[in-house]
Amino acid sequence: MAARESGQATVEALAAIPVLLLAGAIALQLLLAGCALSAADGAAEAGALALAGGRPAKAAAREALPGWADGRARVSVSGGRVSVRLAPPSLSPALAEALAVTSSAFARGAAR
Fold it and tell me: What's the number of CA atoms in the CB half-sphere (13 Å) around residue 14?
């Protein structure tokens, strides 16, 4: 009977591996979305500071983004508000778009 039970434990452990891998992939994707939010926050702030100093906000925001964000970010400036929309790294482009984050910063008294 002990041999049958050890075989059952092996089957249960093998069945759990895909579930654990899926849980790990979901956790990693959420972590990457958080990193994207942090990067978008910093870029929006850099853009707003540049705008307040009379420099081009879009260029400053793009310079503040990490290298992996090239081609994944959209920067917009409206009045004194700088907004950065950033899609996190993902294996699926549709998932990256669904998890895209937006951050805005406002420059009071910005030179337009």
Answer: 6
| Domain annotation covers residue 28 | yes
Sign (positive or negative) of CA dihedral 86, 92, 93, 94: negative
Residue 80 in domain: yes
Domain assignment of residue 57, given as a range = 2-106
pTM listed for this prediction: 0.82
One digit per residue, the tens of pLDDT, for the chain of length 112 reads: 455 566 777 888 888 899 999 999 999 999 999 999 999 999 999 999 999 999 999 999 999 999 999 899 999 999 899 999 999 999 889 999 999 999 999 998 755 4
Beta pairing partners, 6: none
In a domain, 44, yes or no: yes
One-character DSSP codes across 26-81 = HHHHHHHHHHHHHHHHHHHHHHHHHHHTTS-HHHHHHHHS-GGGTTTEEEEEETTE
CB contact at 8 A, 64 and 47: yes
